[in-house]
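Weekly puzzle thread! Below is a chain. First person to post its structure in token form gets bragging rights.
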Amino acid sequence: MIRPGDRIVAGVSGGADSVCLLFVLLEYAEQIPLQLAVVHVDHGLRGDSGEDAEFVEELCRQKGVPFYLKKADVKALAAQEKLSLEEAGRKLRYSAFREAAEAFGANRIAVAHNGNDRAETMLFHLFRGSGIKGLCGIPPTREEIVRPLLCLERHEIESYLDERGLAYRTDSTNLEDGYTRNRIRHHILPYAEREISAGTVAHMCRTADILSETEEYLALQTARARQDCVEASPEDRACRVVDVGRFGQQHITLRKRLLLALMEELAPGIRDIRAVHVEEVLSLFEKEGTPRVDLPCGIRAVRRYDKVFLERAKEPDGKISEALYCQVTLPSGETPKPLYFDLGNGLLAEISVFFSKSGQKIPTNRYTKWFNCDKIKKSLVFRFRRTGDFLSIADGRGEVRHKSLKEYMITEKIPREIRQSMPILAEEDHVLWLIGYRIGEYYKVDGNTKRILQVKLIGGCTDSETEEKNVGAH
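Winning reply:
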């Protein structure tokens, strides 16, 4: 983790773990030459957070360690990017760590995760559904990040501090059960240690090491499978070509890993690729003809004879398109809180589900729509249009017929240049709503509707506008 001559920035909150990290690094600096600095992030979540910063700054003054302070508004970032406070806090912390590292000229960033944190992360990922990589928990190193305390349990850290008479701060939010990790920390792991197996954390960390080795081996095998069945196309970063025959000779584990890796390459940093998308692409290798699967972030998979092409849409100027794709899985009951989806260009979709009640008045404004949730059988998707999309239209004689979305757009005189960038809400090819225009007749709320899906657009429009004021809003 650390070599002679390294310049290290340590993240120190003032809590037991990070104070231990600071003093362990100071002791280590007596054995090998290294330069050490400290960064403290004030998240602005507690009234006494300034006292934590003063405590850490005083420690650094006493030890002659350069100190960097970063004040952050976690709540604002969480609201802006629709993140939990935990996610927003983590994002801001690592951003602050890297800023301090750049200012100090550091090549290492040390953080204070310990074995308990690793076990908690393993359980957190397990409960949410995870592959092997997620079950490895927290890695000891990742790029410039190092975790020198990962081999220690929390009680060992506290003993180290007590034996040396070292003070530390206690974050009151760590004592609450409002955060998922805190509930795992306060209830699940202690119960396991007490009632199931003494040494649970140590056992889980050993398992994480085994899984890490397994993950490393599978990564090597996946790379070999890629060499065997993926055609090289370095000149086109928006396309990957997979040979159907050679792909089918790989073990199913490697096939799934390879497809996931290729999709992540086409859309780095995305979080919307899931197991269901991998399964959809896998199905192409069993079909004949030219079937197609549309995936998040404008990725599509197309079978053309003995090849499957994974492509990311391009704009006319050749740039890779940031195409809209937001998958919506509706709950079986009501939504206690609305769900939000970013449609781009400052537009958010607020989604809620509730039970129908007598006397409810269906909204008539242009950007709030109700749909018969009972008729929706599959996941919905906010996306741009594609070939085969259709609307259900009342024909005036009591019948409902299908009309292609392209035909409808032509009839409504929607300019050709904006058709491809108009968001829709669809169940597969069946369009519930061409946003800003009409909704599909099939999905309208009627007297037999039990559950109602409400979709409300926020931003980029005035929700008080009524349909009667807008041409084409039927």
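Puzzle host: Confirmed. Bonus trivia for everyone else. The first strand starts at residue 7 and ends at 11.
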